[in-house]
Amino acid sequence: MTDDVRFPSSRGPELAGVLDAPEASTRGWGVLVHGFTLGKDSPAAFRIARGLAEQGIGMLRYDCLGLGESDGEWGDGSFTVKVDDTVRAAEFLAERGTAPALLIGHSWGGAAAIVAAQRIPSVKAVVTIGAPAEPAEVERHYDSVVGRVMEEGTAPWLIGGREMTLKRDFVEDVRRAELIAQVRTLGRPLLVMHSPTDATVGIDNASEIFRAAVHPRSFVALEGSDHFLTADGQADRAARIISAWADQYL
């Protein structure tokens, strides 16, 4: 069962979300944070949230600023805004009486989830899937225009057939972001999931995050999967693993 929802971002414009609610009894609730420019309906976000709902865990997935059905401009976001909006999503769930105990982040969203979890009292466990050890790793995707951005303040950036506006504030914020120290102070159980053959964010990132984490920590290799979990059954498998691992924290 799904419901479309909207809530204000930390910057003001409304964000579009989807509640994937269990059909039967509910074991708990969580928030799923999508990757860099992917959106709530990307294969990983959609299939994992749906799979967890089938396992009795209600999920909120949402489009970040300027993506999908959300208002605002993507270029007005940043890593800090992504973290702040993850907190806003958790507050939205709490306001409706379903405070999240679980925070899941895919790719860049995994880095944001680690930082945001420390500001969400209800979150008892965190999961990262294909997360980078440093948020600034994404700069390689827009390195062809970053010089112009730093010189002129903005520049158009084409990705996946979409044109976005990259801004100097965005670049500078991402460069300042630091994750590993945040992993050490997470203070919650962490499940690190990563494919050994991930060609987008290498497996060394998972090793660095896992080494920095304190117990309880767990690692699951998503053998045979690509970064975006598009192969048949991979996202569903990830959802089953998360459901079993998170059971004691719900």
Automatic annotation (TrEMBL):
Q: Which Gene3D superfamilies match?
A: alpha/beta hydrolase (3.40.50.1820)
Family matches, as SUPFAM superfamilies? alpha/beta-Hydrolases
Q: Which residues form the Serine aminopeptidase S33 domain?
A: 28-169
Q: Matching Pfam families, A to Z?
A: Hydrolase_4
Q: Which InterPro entries match?
A: AB_hydrolase_Est10, AB_hydrolase_fold, Hydrolase_4
Q: What is this protein called?
A: Redox protein
